[in-house]
Amino acid sequence: MTKKQTAGRDQLGDFAPQFAALNDDVLFGEVWAKEDELSAHDRSLITCAALMAQGLFPQLKAHMEIAKTNGVTKVEMVALITHLSFYAGWPKAWSAFDLAKAIFD
């Protein structure tokens, strides 16, 4: 991920500065930046899968947008959701498809 993330500071910087710094500097600045281990594309797929499985749809929406930026295609996202529907639950898949349609169409 080449774009520097500032969402933590933008949304929580004044309210929860330590959490904001951990989000921007550690999670996105260090973990996501280790593309020699996993590409941003693959990290996006993994992250979207984890968020869908947990039913965390506001975060899933944000990460689907990041995934699209990281080169995840509509075909890949549809396949991810379809596959996970059997493991994470059919209703979660329906909700995830609503998000994916808005982002990838």
Automatic annotation (TrEMBL):
Looking at the record's lineage, which domain of life comes first?
A: Bacteria
Identify the InterPro entries for this entry. Answer: 4CMD/NDH-1_regulator, AhpD-like, CMD-like
Taking every annotated instance into account, which residue ranges of this chain make up the domain Carboxymuconolactone decarboxylase-like?
A: 17-102
Recorded protein name is Carboxymuconolactone decarboxylase family protein
Q: Which organism does this sequence originate in?
A: Lacticaseibacillus baoqingensis
Upper lineage ranks? Answer: Bacteria, Bacillati, Bacillota, Bacilli, Lactobacillales
